[in-house]
Amino acid sequence: MITLRNNFDKSAKFYNNNAHVQKIAAKRMIEILKGAGETNLQNILELGAGNGIFSNLIKNNFDYENIFCTDLAYNFLKFNGEPIKVQCNILKLPFKNQSFDNVISSSTLQWIDDLDKLLKEIEYVSKKSFKGAFSIFLKGTFHEMDKVSKLTGFGNILKMKESRYYLENFYNNGFNVDFCHEEKHTIFFDSVRQFLNSHKMTGATVKANKFISKNNYNSFLKYYKKLFSIKNKIPVSYNIGYYIITKQTGK
What is the CA radius of gyration of the chain? Predict the structure, then answer.
């Protein structure tokens, strides 16, 4: 958690210009909520709010009373324009029982190792009429990078889960899944180097487990382009799950 917080703190001022897919995930979640007939989200808790990409979309598309923006990274929250911001570990939420009508999050839950603990926190702070909305990066994200990393020894990929993992955990922690959808998105870059630099500027990186040489790096650039280049553009694939959940009867 400390390494993750440091990464995001360091990248805070660069994040907005490089968070291409994170903006897609947030916008798509808004479209899904509107398609489900949502108009008023009332008291909202946002987990991993960062610089406010999702918060701003919520504010511009729905009626609401308050948005409480939480994030582990202090520097991220400094760029968030919402008035109520709380720096905290979302596995230890500092809120009272049944405080929120809605809990939302975009591009955050894939970082959580102990999902069971997080869902218990969400269950505690949410009202009985609660509705949650989450966009989560799934297994299959960075599949090109994963393949080339194994081939060249350069890079380290976050081990993301399949959608089934989240569905099972939602149900086992007392939630119904009212909506579930998985989408693949591809973003194209002018070069592999541009992709790596942009990815680094989001802070969403995983520390390598071993020393990486310049030869490893150059091999990565070479083979990524050789294996995946399309019309001199470099594709990067993302697999994103979108979920709307409510509490099971009696919870």
Answer: 19
* CB of 101 closer than 8 Å to CB of 41: yes
What's the sign of the alpha-carbon dihedral 245, 133, 158, 215? Answer: positive
Rounded distance, CA 14 to CA 169, Å?
A: 34
The one-letter code for the residue type at 122 is I
Report residue 131 as tokens. 């509705």
> Which of 4, 11, 6 shows the shortest CA–CA distance to 198?
11
List the beta bridge partners of residue 135: 106, 242
Q: What is the residue-wise DSSP string for 118-152?
A: HHHHHHHHEEEEEEEEEEEE-EEEEHHHHHHHHHH
Strands 126-137 and 234-247 come out as antiparallel
Per-residue pLDDT tens over the stretch 151-199: 999 988 899 999 999 999 999 999 999 999 999 999 999 999 999 999 9
pLDDT digits (tens, 9 = 90+) for 28-70: 999 999 999 999 999 999 999 999 999 999 999 999 999 999 9
Angle between helices 53-61 and 20-35 (to 10 degrees): 30
Give the tens place of pLDDT for each residue, 206-222: 766 666 789 999 999 99
In contact, 166 and 241? CB cutoff 8 Å:
yes
Residue of 144, 245, 136 lying closest to 183 (CA atoms): 136
Contact 62, 41 (CB under 8 A): yes
Report the alpha-carbon distance of residue 42 to residue 64 in Å, rounded: 4
Half-sphere exposure of 162 (CA within 13 A, CB side): 2
